[in-house]
Amino acid sequence: MRNIRDHAQRFQDAYGAGNNDDDSFAPPVDIFDTEKAYILHVSLPGAKKEDIGVNWDADRNILNIAGVVHRPGDEEFLNTLASGERKVGMFERNVTLPPEGSERPDEVDASGISAKMEDGILVITVPKVEKEWTEIHKVDIE
């Protein structure tokens, strides 16, 4: 993760801040709660997989997605930018799993988390722990 942030900082030092409002942004995320996994779609058009890091914090149940999105081109070309509407620069997004309001607070199988880039969308699959049986505890009444 440190390498991605160092890389992003070097890029911003060389080419200036990516956004007019702020140096970083939080990409939009869709979260799907399927029977076997949480599926996240993170909108990152123009991002390269080597510039993205995904980490699971089991103590806080947080999935961290961070990295950098570059504008393609060399410095001379980038200096000709007339209008910049795309979000570029460093980004970070923390997603709590299970999401707030979830009816089933399923546990996450951290060893099975996977991610891939598909047409500008980072697709992250976070499998749920498979439960082979439902444990029922008898409560004695006093």
Automatic annotation (TrEMBL):
InterPro entries attached to this UniProt entry: A-crystallin/Hsp20_dom, HSP20-like_chaperone, Small_HSP
UniProt cross-references to CDD domains, sorted A to Z: ACD_sHsps-like
Keyword presence, Cytoplasm: no
Gene3D superfamilies per the UniProt record, alphabetical: 2.60.40.790
Ranges of residues in domain SHSP: 20-142
This protein's UniProt keywords: Stress response
Top-rank taxon: Eukaryota
Protein family according to the UniProt entry: Belongs to the small heat shock protein (HSP20) family.
Protein name: HSP20-like chaperone
Naturally occurring in which organism (per UniProt): Thelonectria olida
